[in-house]
Amino acid sequence: MKYLFPFLLILTLASCKSYIDLKPLSENSVDNFYKTESDINQGVVATYDGIQTLMRPGYLDHFGEVRSDNSYNFATTPVGGAYADFDNFNLTSANTYLNNFWHSSYTAIQRANIVLNRIDAINMDENLKRIRKGEVKFLRALAYFYLVQIWGDVPLVVDETKDPMSFIGQQRTPAQQIYNQIITDLGEAAEMLPQTYSATEEGRVTKSAADALLARVYLVRKDFPKVLEYTNKVISAAKHTLDKDYSNIFRYSGKSDEVIFKISFKSGTNSEGFPYLNVNHDYNNTASRDLMESYKNDPRLAANVKESGIKTYYSTKIHNENVGADNTIDIKIVVLRYADILLMKAEALNETGFPNSEALNLLNQVRTRFTANQPIVQSQLSSKKDWQNVLMHERRIEFAFENLRWFDLVRTDLAKEVMTEKRFGGDRTNSASALPYTFADRDLLFPVPQVQIDASGGSLAQNPGY
Amino acid sequence: MRKFYVLLVAMLLQTGALLAQQNAQGRVSDSEGNPMPGVSISVKGSPQTGTATAENGTFTLQVKSGTILLFRMIGYQTQEVTFNGQSGIVVQLKDENTNLNDVVVVGYGTTSRRNVISSITTIDSKQLENKPVTSFDQALAGKVPGVNISQSNGAPGGGLSVTVRGTGSITGGTDPLYVIDGVPLSTNNGDRFSQGNNNFNYQVNPLNSINPSDIENIQILKDAAATAIYGSRGSNGVVIITTKKGSAGAPTISFNAYGGVSSLAKKVDVMDAYQLSNYTKLARDLSWINKDPLTHKATDALSLRNIDDRYPAYMIPYINGETGLNNTDWQDEFYRKAATQNYDLSVSGGNEKTRYFISANYMDQQGIIPNSGIKKTGLRLNLETKLNDKLKYSINLAPSYIANNLARSEKNWGDEGLVIGVLMQHPQLPAYNPDGSYQVDRLFETLWSGESNVVQFQNPLALANQVDNKMDQYRLTFSNNLEYNILKNLKFKTTLGGDFSQNIRTYYRPKSLSYRTEKAPTTYFNYGSVFNSNSVNILWDNTVEYKNTFADKHDLNIVLGTSMQKETNKNTTAEGRNFATDNVRTINTAQERYSDEGQREWSLLSYFTRASYSYLGKYLLTGTLRADGSSKFGANTKWGYFPSVSAGWRISDEKFFNKGFISELKMRASYGVTGNNDIPYYGSVALLSTTGKYTFGDVVQSGLYPNTAPNENLSWETTKTIDAGLDINFAKDFSFSADYYNAHTTDLLLDVPVPSASGYSSSLQNIGAMRNQGIELMMAMNKTLSSHSNLSVSVNFSANRNKVLALGPGQKQIISNGGLTGSHITRIGNAVGEFYGYQVLGKFESAAQLGSTAQFGKQAVGDFIYQDTNGDGVVNADDRVILGNNNPDYQIGLNISYSYKNFDFSASAYTKQGFQIINTMHRYLAEAWGNNLSVYLSDAAPRPVWGVGSSTHTRASSWQIEDASFIRIRDISVGYTFGKAVTDKLSIGRLRIYTAFMNPFTWTKYSGYNPEVSSNTGSALTPGEEFGNYPVSRTSTIGLNLTF
């Protein structure tokens, strides 16, 4: 009998199935999440966070500003570099920052998709449910809107990913379909979203934000009647006005009625602030001589650009002197504001019928916010082209460092002409970059990141010319 | 069989006439005094008369006076003793002069070398003793065929890279399993979770806690037949460490001590102050001109230029050729001669019931980087006692305390990596101020004042000496064993073992030390952290062993067992910034404080068995099977099964075999399946990240999102290994063994890159496959040349070929980033982690050549011409090629020991041939920003370019690839043992003095500090990169061994 003793011991182990069933100790897992209203709220917050990433230095700024004639890469070296290549039209598909933006856009989209996939099954206030859906639809549309403007055709994903491996072999979706999805999402979002939030929830997407973004989408699509329709919706909703104090729009602590949608970075805790890059400010996104010269005597230059200790010129819109304990700063990145609504409407009016006195009036509203600026009068504008030049100039100096310039140049088909003119490089009055460059037609779109092409097994096609 | 024969003889004896006979009584022991049961005793000339020794080695036999007794035991020299009626015959049997009877420790048991039919290499204590090493693995380099040990880092106590038979995994662990006295060690003890976060990471070798002089022997289990009994942990090989035991007899006290000095073994060739000044001027002028070639000239005053294109004013006198200016050699200023001392004291002894071994060790090894080193204190108690005839209890207990003083070496300049920072320092600047204090902030001020953009690195002497960077490690490893002999042939053993450890990591960067973006007194970069981690690893093993011989012919040994093991790791971090003063450095005095916590655990439940059968000792067959269930495996793949089978044939025991020149000939073959469970703890679960926060109003709200995709099929990596081998003993003193192996690994865990459209960048899948095949040869000679001289020589050779067979679906290759983007590639058909980049063909010599040759972007005369591999007229990412790899074509180890009278000499050397290194130091030591490698003054170098992170230097190319083949004399020692005349006078047992040298010579073409360098240990995808690792030092010691 006693010989059996050890065997008995051995057998007892067999019952210890739970011994090898261990749950993570310091991490939450998906298995027990997305069950309650609070869970889904956190999923929505994470979607905002996904969009916030796109507004960090080295993301949208390099597509919207550094690429254009507005800013350049001061750290540019004689042989370029990954950041400088945006500036010098020397991008290759291997560029890290290119892939960062692609990747981060889709992680934001995935977070939106998760919320949309899971929210219907959750027992929560139906009204709140609608608002949450509206918010993430807007955020998803915003991400797709950047993607489609940067790359043209991109993969369209609107469902939660169950098996990432199934994406290998997937192709790019025609840009037209992407725009359709954006327009559908924004239309639905506008139906679901409220116009205002309580002070503690301020910063969430509003109905006017969805309408305003739709106006911008239609502007890119050159559907001017729709631009008028949606800019008018924002104007008639009367929730936004021009701020008398231009600087207040960008001041983190300033509450400004002009802002329609922004992305906030709060310094001091949890690494939520905007990265503080350098005592001499952002080397990679420095105002070009060409931009500063273009202001002439417009007081907005002083309100926008300051000189650093080493003679570089940085934008006050993305800088703040108060560095928090976590080496970050408070910043708000303005995505949509009322001045843009007025200028978009002005542009659409002009495109649908020149001359148009209302268009001129709208432009002057923005321009003469600074009393030192004289209004433009119709006699200065002899053609539609003249008017476009004035408007583009107005947009450039009004929105400099708000990540709009490059997209404005591309959508108006001016990119090639403008960028070629300023191709010489160096410290000249009309130079858009630190180094000389050649602008080619391929440069209107960006190369698809090689990492993505490789990961797809080659099924993602490259843009022509790269 | 033997016993049966003896029994038969005894029966015959009882019936025979027993006249005028006396009782011959006595005891038989081995050379170490251990009692030997089962020794056959017979009467010379009368083979029927005889007996065998009992369990305690005693015997009684009735014989006539004057009879000659023969004592026989297989594997021992037969002894004759003439019985003249003496009482208490003491016989000590000497080993046959072969290794056949050496006990070989295998998983959950032991066997003799004779019966080994798998691939196992044994290293005994002699090869480990008296070496100035902090861990035993450092002493194994070049001694074991098939094991590639690289001292990738020269820090005292720094981690080593050890791979058995090639790299066995791509993303999983590649370290072997270490088992000490039956307890598998926590191999993950050296990872970030246990030793601190990446930013201040420095991996300390988890084997430091084992005192090399406590080790009796080490078995390296290489093939699947040997390691399959360790199941899902067997793929990377198993290293079994057995510590010393006491032996019966009077206590033996031994004391060993050595002391020595280490120094930098080699310097890296960088520019001196004059060279650098001229080079910098040239680079800055070119940069300035290039900004606007139409108007800018080299003669333009510095004041006209922007900060980037100016050079520091202090370079101007050098450029003007003034003589006698300061010319600091920063490597001479920085690296120091470092002292080492080590003391071992041990007492061992016991009686027939109880045996003990107790040791104490203290080691203080300073590093050649100032303010770095290791201090170790360890104790060991090994006790074994027979509670009664059936019950035996043993305990091994080894507490240790290690105080590591760390230097941040393997980091780039931006992270204040000291090695690269020393090389980048401008030699125009002095290390000290006239008053003797450190010259600080000069490079910072040069930038801050707008004078010139230069490397922003603090004086490395100030950094090394003023920054606190420590790790205290407390560890207790133990095992308790209870053995119960249920029946004569049936033994039960239960083991309760454990490995408890605690690490306390502290870091402090003082207020008084400027940072490159913040002038002292610093606030944000006045940073301190305390990182606490503990690990509890508990093991309970049970085995039943059955051993019997049937009909004299059939030997059978069966082991059945179970094992439960669980490890829990916890860590907490407290960090602070902006301390009140530098005097008190605890976090409570910091203005800003943060904290963090992490926990993880894994468990393993196993059932295993081994059956060994031998027929007449000639035909050997062993099979093993293990079933492992692990918490790390996905829900659908909770259990893995790992079988093996091996067979051997000892041809030399066949009747037809004529034992002449060859005394032993064994052929063996094995096949087995093993696993690698060194995969992420919770890889099968979709985890949520809490970093998805966002601010509404002015309140930060928490947000969660999944950052990993689930995979319920996640499992171990599987390796199927075939091994065929041969063991020969010949010409009396020689032995030879050869092995061929082919290990085919499937289910390799890969973080398969997936399109980001999925929301993820990768998905963890068991999907890859690769093969390691190779040969191992070992030849040894141990020859007694004369009565007072002995020579032993062993040579080993091994060659391994690694080949990736499959990656993710449709995936042909994985390109990985080391210090340079895309510097490594893992491509199907090639080895894992080969070097990748552009092939440099030469330099553009003229404008005409520029026009007619494919360019990378816009190039200029003096730039590298890169190969346009696909011939499409432009050089781009598609033109990259494989440039080499870090896997040696072959390695050879040579170990010699020779003794002549009282003198002894030993040396070991090894070589690795046919492999390369990617010298990423080019990224920073070529920018005319800090100092530069001297090679940039050579004709082959490209034109000077200046620029932080400029793409010329961040582009991996054949320019950075260097041949790293080397021959290294690992150690040499010469000793003298004093004769009896001296020792008797001092009343001591033995006294030896010696001098030893570690790494005295290395021959290599490699230009960096160490050809075995690897900055990314732990990543099979990016091996062989030089990114400023702690340089290897050369050590000389003198020591003494004293035995009472």
UniProtKB/TrEMBL annotation, chain A:
One of its GO terms (cellular component) is cell outer membrane. Residues 19-219 form the SusD-like N-terminal domain. The keyword Secreted does not apply. Keywords: Cell outer membrane, Membrane, Signal. InterPro entries: SusD-like_N, SusD_RagB_dom, TPR-like_helical_dom_sf. It comes from the Bacteria. Residues 312-466 form the RagB/SusD domain. It is found in: Cell outer membrane. Belongs to the SusD family. This is Carbohydrate-binding protein SusD.
TrEMBL record, chain B:
Transmembrane segments: none annotated. It is found in: Cell outer membrane. GO terms for cellular component: cell outer membrane. Keywords: Cell outer membrane, Membrane, Receptor, Signal, TonB box, Transmembrane, Transmembrane beta strand, Transport. SUPFAM superfamilies: Carboxypeptidase regulatory domain-like, Porins. Its main location: membrane. GO terms for biological process: siderophore transmembrane transport. Residues 465-909 form the TonB-dependent receptor-like beta-barrel domain. GO terms for molecular function: siderophore uptake transmembrane transporter activity. The keyword Transmembrane applies. It comes from the Bacteria. Residues 1-20 form the signal peptide. InterPro entries: Beta-barrel_TonB, Beta-barrel_TonB_sf, CarboxyPept-like_regulatory, Plug_dom, Plug_dom_sf, TonB-dep_OMP_SusC/RagA, TonB-dep_OMP_SusC/RagA_CS, TonB-dep_rcpt-like. It is a multi-pass membrane protein. Residues 114-238 form the TonB-dependent receptor plug domain. Belongs to the TonB-dependent receptor family. This is TonB-dependent receptor. It comes from Pedobacter antarcticus 4BY. The lineage of its organism: Bacteria, Pseudomonadati, Bacteroidota, Sphingobacteriia, Sphingobacteriales.
